[in-house]
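[SOLVED] Need 3D model of a two-part complex

Original post:
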Amino acid sequence: MHVNSTRFGEIEIRDDAIISFPEGLPGLDGERWALIASSEASPFFWLHSVDHAAIAVPVTSPWLFFSDYEVSVPEDAARALGLDNPGDAYIVCVVRASDEIQDFTINLAGPLVINAVTRTGRQVINAAGGYAVRHPLFSEVELNEVQPSSAPVPVTAAAE
Amino acid sequence: MLVITRKPGDRIRLGDDITVTVLDVVGSTVRLGIDAPAEIPVYRHEVWEAIEAENRAAADSSVSQLKPPEDTP
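Solution:
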């Protein structure tokens, strides 16, 4: 798929890198998304809409920042995603970036759960309660301590 | 939209599998008991609204904001 991204310019997304969110992402248009890496060293990916050139959200693996984070996937979502094997679940959380690093937040209450085998995902309400929609991202670690992200689904590289 | 009046202890049946019971009413607060199959998601509406708002706010993030500090002049 060819996407003329407002952020990254022309990017070519392989068919096997497309992640389907049949229910969409709440508040955002589009069912087809792909992970885009703008830097190999970054802990962040962009989850970029395949159908809307201007829509993308930063995501990261929450465990890079919060090693004791817990996710309980609601049973209806696990069934819909065909997640019989928990090892197939790839989980990222949406990040709200900001000009100041101390203002970055992460949505720990609504993680994105992706079946890495079928590349189908859904944003769920974390049944392991008590997490905030807008949790300070750099409350426990510094940016230079965070490892780069890796993903079990294909990631498309974007020119920096 | 259906509007009906219920008293504490009264129930509403939605389809074959879902029962909502009015447990009690105290002032402006209603406590509801919801019996639904595990595959039916039940959410507080404001939680979804918060996630929608957060997704939209996250989509306003820019590439330059996510650049590591050493990359920025």
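Edit: The radius of gyration of chain B is 21 Å.
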